[in-house]
Write a structure and sequence with these properties.
single chain; alpha/beta; Alkaline Phosphatase, subunit A; eight-stranded mixed β-sheet; three-stranded antiparallel β-sheet; DUF1501; PF07394 family protein; TAT_signal
């Protein structure tokens, strides 16, 4: 990604996010990659995956979330069992073009529900009982644009806040896609979301959700093989703290990215071998 293309990325995410009372923080890190560029979008605070990618056919969803559940008639249908939050409508063009992969059940074993520690684990690609000073991107010759959207720690009054945050995310991702298609860089670009953790399945008394475990994440790009991946949520099989169990180690996402960026030995970067997901056409 050259400077003109980077400015296109920054421009897509720049400007006011006043409707969500949040702002995107934009920084650039890493060095040039001969294969493609990576845009990491951090949903800081712990995004509520269950109201982002909705198990719309599961009646337990409405039982566990009597006030937060998204009505079926408002949700954006992906298949007979799965839908997106209505605020994510700008992403449906990428979904229909099969350029949006949704990976469900992402996280790590024995999840730590501390924001600080969980971000460390994601940033260093380490195990929960392992402490590293270097980030996984410090070990990778990959060009990265790093973007953060704050405000996803929705312990109270979640419904309106979360809708505004997802709307801001979707509008900016759709704008980014349009600009990179126009510049000719979309085919060589990957966009991937990350977050501290998912959130508890049962809503709390404050109209929000507490820290959870497994979550859904988006991977977009012109070389993405769009569709649903990972482990769909089973609302009858929650972890001991009421979160969605983890079915896909987050380092499998990193392994997928590294292979696409020409890193033949991802295990030397991630500390172990993780099977890439079959969601790229490169």
């Amino acid at each position: 990604m050259n400077r003109r293309q980077f400015l296109s990325v920054a421009g897509a995410f720049a400007g006011s996010a006043a409707s969500a009372n949040e702002a995107f923080a934009i920084a650039r890190a890493g060095s040039a990659s001969a294969i493609q560029s990576l845009v990491l979008v951090d949903l800081e605070g712990g995004n509520d995956a269950l109201n982002t990618v909705i198990p719309i056919a599961d009646p337990r969803y409405r039982v566990l979330r009597p006030t937060l559940a998204i009505p079926k008639e408002r949700a954006l249908t992906l298949d007979e069992k799965t839908a997106l939050h209505p605020s994510l409508a700008p992403l449906m063009s990428a979904w229909r073009a099969k350029e949006l992969a949704i990976v469900q059940g992402v996280g790590y074993d024995a999840p730590n529900r501390s924001h600080y520690r969980s971000r460390q684990i994601w940033d260093t690609a380490s195990h929960v009982d392992e402490y590293r000073a270097d980030g996984w991107l410090d070990r990778v010759d990959v060009e990265v644009t790093h973007i953060a959207l704050h405000g996803f720690d929705t312990h109270e009054a979640q419904s309106r806040r979360h809708a505004a945050l997802l709307s801001a995310l979707a509008e900016r991702l759709a704008s980014l896609r349009a600009r990179l298609i126009a510049s000719g860089a979309w085919r060589k670009t990957l966009v991937m979301t990350r977050s501290d953790f998912g959130r508890a399945v049962r809503e709390n008394i404050a109209g929000g959700t507490d820290h959870g475990a497994g979550a859904a994440h988006f991977v977009m790009g012109g070389s993405v093989r769009g569709g649903l991946y990972g482990t769909p949520p089973r609302l009858d099989r929650l972890d001991a703290d009421g979160g969605l169990p983890v079915g896909v180690d987050f380092r499998r996402l990193y392994a997928t990215v590294l292979r696409a960026c020409g890193q033949s030995d991802a295990s030397s970067i991630l500390g172990a071998r993780f099977e890439p997901l079959p969601m790229l056409r490169v």
